[in-house]
Task: structure prediction
Amino acid sequence: MDPDLSDGQIEAVIAGGPGLVAAGYTYDSGGSGDAVIWVCADGYDWARIDDEAVFGGPGSQEVRSLAAGSQGLVAADFGNLIWVSADGVTWTGADATAFSGGTIWSLAPWGGGFIAVGSVDVEDYETDAAVWLSPPPE
Result:
């Protein structure tokens, strides 16, 4: 039942993929975080997915929100990196330029696509609430 959490933290869990998908991050010895996904079919035996090519890179990548919808799964971090998956096991980075200057706080399925809510920086440490909608499938 140990999903190898000795150096990490789970921030979100959803029903999806092979059964359950959890996401968060682990820290390396330098204090930088890398995003990690854990998947489980039965609630007990977890497999860790920490693909450095997808979830690594300079700085910290920390999955903070997950959503599952008809188009698959989406994961996001506060730094506005987005990852997508059809099965919860294989993930790829997605274009996050629409979130430039903003922070994603939560994701949810919506209208065949996804909705992201958060905030955008306006000036001098002031923020406004923000909502981003992905286009529904054609």
